């Protein structure tokens, strides 16, 4: 069964750019130009699919099927319909094998290039973003898939070298599961990932190797690998995106309560009338009649003594302050040595424990990955190299099932084991994965860990690829397993 490891890693649409005065290319059969030469230095020719040859000049149109050849000292820049750029360096030969691009149907784009010899640098355009799985750059030895990338490739008869300035590429040797005639990136156990985050690192494949190798520059870069690629003319905006902003106006309530107060006036009138006595006329005094004076009894009101109210005195209890407990500040834990990052912005489901690539890659370098996930590792080494045999516990896992129709269904990793013998650089692992479509499926793998701490194994029905942390205390790998006509795949994280 064809292996699908890294099969969904999408290829960057290498080479496309917007042209002035050229129609949209719908393929080789339409005969329309797909690119234009914007700069040339020295001698170069364009050979069409009918073998007609034309000397390259600025403004020379490029069609699907054309072959661009540069002599010693020759240098050509090409601008393609969707905004991508390609530089063809001296003594190089690049073939535009197929090119189909329509800005109204970007997802149907198809681009395939072949670098027979020499050096080329490519910066992606709109077609790469819209149809990543339909782009390919072949050399005589390998297929290169790219994701939103600025990259450089140098190839000879027995060797291909690549570097990445921005984004990421995957390189796969031709062989089982990887044909030059296929579309998009190849996928196999021999696929390797290179990202711009792997500073001062190049990917190299020789025809004597089983898989590409990651190597440091060590101050030496391949010929012309650092050449600048610039378009001397301002590029047109291929599509203006309009954004409509709507606002909802809100008028606050404007009623204020009115309080009316009535003023009440009261008049207190006090009057006292004074009586004036008028003296009577003089008359003879009457006989004196003594009227006994009646003295009314004196009523003595009893003295009411108010009761004495005794107010109890409340004495506040003495509060003894609690002893001051000084809690030491927690010591921050060091960041984990390994972290999974995802290409997509949102989690695939509730079991997807990966974080964003920017977060996972903070202070870490990329190791292995596929179209969904990348495993990042802290580059700092351990003070003492791990030794002996170590058994790891499964800490986190995420799995999914890709049905034969391409639908993604949930799956679960129920159990697992991982043993690493640091003395012999060997590992053994097993997983029990289940889904509604497959039932319980077992995965068993073993192999060796190379000097960089990477490991992988491949059979006709499964693939495992991962890395060990430099301190030897954690590990992670991704897996694929054929089941029920589809693929069970996922990521794992282990510690001891």
Question: What's the short story on this structure?
Answer:
By secondary structure, the chain is mainly β.
Helix and strand topology:
Blueprint: E1 35-41, E2 44-47, E3 53-55, E4 61-62, E5 67-70, E6 75-80, E7 85-88, E8 93-100, E9 110-123, H1 126-130, E10 135-138, E11 142-155, E12 159-173, E13 192-195, E14 201-206, E15 213-216, E16 338-342, E17 355-356, H2 357-360, E18 365-369, E19 373-377, E20 389-402, E21 408-421, E22 426-435, E23 439-448, E24 454-458, E25 462-468, E26 474-483, E27 486-495
Parallel strand pairs: 9-10, 16-17
Antiparallel strand pairs: 1-4, 1-6, 2-3, 2-5, 5-8, 6-7, 7-9, 8-9, 9-11, 10-11, 11-12, 12-13, 12-14, 14-15, 16-19, 18-19, 20-21, 20-27, 21-22, 22-23, 24-25, 25-26, 26-27
Structural class: mainly beta
Which word captures the global form? elongated
Q: Report strand %.
A: 35-45%
Would you give the CATH topology of the domain at 28-216? Jelly Rolls
Level of helix content?
A: under 10%
Q: Which stretches of 5+ consecutive residues score pLDDT under 50? A: 1-30, 222-227, 231-283
Tell me the series of helices and strands, N- to C-terminal: EEEEEEEEEHEEEEEEEEHEEEEEEEEEE
Biggest sheet record? 15 strands, mixed
Number of β-strand runs: 27
What's the level 1 CATH class of the domain at 28-216? Mainly Beta
